[in-house]
Amino acid sequence: MQTNKKVIQSINLSFCENESKSPSILFLHGNSLSSETFRFQFEDEKLNNYHLLALDFPGHGKSGWSGNKERDYNVFGFRDAVVEFIQELNIKDFIFAGHSLGGHVAIECLPKLSNCRGIMIWGTPPVSRPLDTSQLFMPNPDVGLFFKKDLSDEELSIIGEIVLNYENRDFIKEIVKLSDPQFRSCLTQSLADGKISDEVNILKSSEIPVAILNGDDDPIANKDYMVNLDLPGIWKNKVILFENGGHSMQMLTDKHGNAIEFNKTLLEFANSIF
Known about the structure:
Blueprint: E1 2-8, E2 11-17, E3 24-28, H1 39-42, E4 51-55, H2 69-72, H3 75-88, E5 94-99, H4 101-109, E6 116-122, H5 133-136, H6 153-163, H7 169-177, H8 181-192, H9 199-205, E7 210-215, H10 223-227, E8 240-242, H11 259-273
Parallel strand pairs: 3-4, 3-5, 5-6, 6-7, 7-8
Antiparallel strand pairs: 1-2, 2-4
């Protein structure tokens, strides 16, 4: 994974890419995570036939922290940063691959882009308005940690276990520590202020292929909500459930996730488009 920098909206954003040419797959990571969570995709020989890019959102990973947090630290701010990033790098035909919060941001980008050829999301229950988080997420009290500003070491461990598993939680803990703590509190306030679109309607009006994946044991995203979504034209005519996929099926672990099958599915999706 080659790391580069690009100034977007006055923030020095970090991103990884390989050396292949277009068409492109643009990975967007989850809340308080980073491009490091896509390492296994960058190590996949067949996926590397595509131009792979993975962006660190403002205040995440190796990207700079925002000096205008109210503007930047919400899904609209991330949307605008991603759109500008795509335009600045002159990315032509591409598909989005969005994990969790990254999936929401990818959906929000669609009305502003004409060169996106498809979108794959996982761990991402598309929002309908009015916003009702009780439908979107599992009744897991620990989900609230993703919206808490300051996290204790124990809470970081809980997040690591939710995102991946016990065995690999230290890897996630170190990634979360790099994120700006104010992002989580700003995101919470932005959602309370209604700064999120009707993503179900965006997907319904989109004319591009939409692939929705989810772990059948995801402790965060409500798979039943997604399975019952009425989305015409969804890829393979269904939400694809991964057994023991957890919340982060793109990551290779011994106990949870299903990264090998995930990569095969992503490659099949990309090949079906390009």
